Amino acid sequence: MTIFGLGVAMTMIRKAVITAAGLGTRLIPATKEMPKEMLPIFVRSDSGPVLKPLLQVLFEKLYEFGIKEFCFVVGRGKRAIEDHFTPDWEFVEKLESKGKTNQAGELEGFYRMLEKSVIVWVNQPSPLGFGDAVLRSRPFADEDFLLCAGDTYVHSPNNDFLKSLKALRAESICEVSLLLRRIENPSRFGVAVVEDDTVDRLRVVRVVEKPSVPPSDLAILPFYVFTPQIFDALDSIGLGYGGEFQLTDAIQLLIDRGKVVMAVELPDSDIWLDVGTPESYFEALKISYALSGGA
Length: 295
Hints:
Layout: E1 3-5, E2 8-10, E3 15-20, E4 40-43, E5 50-53, H1 54-65, E6 69-75, H2 79-84, H3 89-97, H4 101-115, E7 118-124, H5 130-135, E8 145-149, E9 152-155, H6 160-171, E10 176-182, E11 190-194, E12 202-209, E13 218-226, H7 229-236, H8 247-256, E14 261-265, E15 271-274, H9 278-291
Parallel strand pairs: 3-6, 3-8, 6-7, 10-14
Antiparallel strand pairs: 1-2, 4-5, 8-13, 9-15, 10-13, 11-12, 11-13, 12-14
Helix pairs in contact: 3-4, 7-8
């Protein structure tokens, strides 16, 4: 529920939409049968570094942040995700019977989170783009919601970036909150142009998907806070970059309609892990291993 008063919007973010329907073509053949969102990264545990699917790590991060309602948008061949997110207590018992108490404990903790959450599965039959995947979550996302891509993770010990996104929506009357990171060549990402880059809260005046000549060095990271108005914009766009329905086109349409889109930059203290390419996945493994306490 959103309450407006004295120029401030008080909002609660209770729902998250996580897209996991991409084909992962840049990682084939590894992702021919295994969704790229299920590629493992290292995390810290009481027994030392352990490997967890990136999508599980993301889910656990959002759960810790207080979100308990999740909508996963999946595509064809993504059954492994649904299987992994379905508790298998018999397997936990089998691990315990074999003395694998640490492994059993890791799964038990994950399963307890799942059982305390509402999980909704939505199918994207054809790979028609990020925007199309988001649009399919419409029946679930009937209030302000957090959107995340399932192949990206931000290591943020205090959830600072999530707090910033939530505060941005709460402190300003905006329809969209974006997370940005300055990188040298953002041409393989959505790119944002901001009105004033001298303040913490940035007014976004333009967004463009994967431009050959980026208009700025501000890459849009796939963590957003939206109001349900995004779905009306998604209904109104046509095919964009790559012959797909692009979320950036819907955000730009909101800007063109006079809606307020705001952004925050990812703090330097938070570490962005991307598994979209072989090179970035290799870096994610190295960085996550160091963060997990590995040598």
